[in-house]
Design brief:
Blueprint (H helix, E strand, L loop, with lengths): L10 H13 L9 E4 L6 E6 L2 E8 L10 H24 L3 E3 L2 H8 L6 H8 L6 E8 L6 E9 L8 E7 L9
Antiparallel strand pairs: 1-2, 2-3, 3-7, 4-5, 5-6, 6-7
């Protein structure tokens, strides 16, 4: 669960959060650190060597929700991601997909992987990434890569849209 549960999806807020993510520092090195809300402890951000990850939106709990309501929730969440991708495509050009199949298998096998993919797996952010980059993070900033994804760790769990920024290319891991 994230600190975003219960918030309505608003495209302008999501875009603003991505702009804030772009404007912030990206750790060049160091351990991966996940932060939580001071009151609830719910996930608010993760940062690590070369990246930062931020939840943008979280659906309501889907415990006890079945079709057709579950299908409606899934369609709405996919619509939020699609709307965000369309807007980011307008800004930075066409995105490319980076699959999460290999990181998922590496997680299951307890095999090492780059810190960014390990952090995504640790937060159950297992959805394929829509990636742009390199993009300029600001007038005086270096180029970075940006990605968004829709995630759900199991059928009862909320759906979560996340954004991330990386100072390294985000590329598909090899088998």
């Amino acid at each position: 669960m994230t600190a975003r549960i219960g918030e309505a999806f608003e495209i302008d807020r999501a875009l603003s959060d991505i702009e804030t993510l772009l404007a912030g520092p990206v750790p060049a090195s160091g351990p991966t650190d996940s932060q939580g809300d001071l009151v609830t402890g719910e996930w608010t951000a993760t940062s690590g060597e070369g990246f930062r990850i931020l939840p943008l939106w979280e659906s309501d709990s889907l415990v006890g929700v079945y079709a057709p309501e579950w299908n409606d929730a899934d369609e709405a969440a996919r619509g939020h991601l699609d709307d965000l991708v369309v807007e980011l495509d307008r800004r930075w050009g066409a995105h490319r997909k980076v699959g999460m199949r290999v990181p998922i298998f590496r997680k299951i096998a307890d095999e090492p992987m780059p810190p960014l993919f390990q952090a995504l797996c640790d937060q159950d952010c297992l959805g394929d990434l829509s990636v742009w980059g390199p993009v300029a993070a600001g007038p005086d900033a270096a180029n970075v890569w940006v990605a968004v994804s829709l995630n759900q760790c199991d059928g009862d769990a909320p759906m979560i849209v996340v954004a991330l920024v990386s100072d390294r290319p985000i590329i598909e891991l090899e088998d």
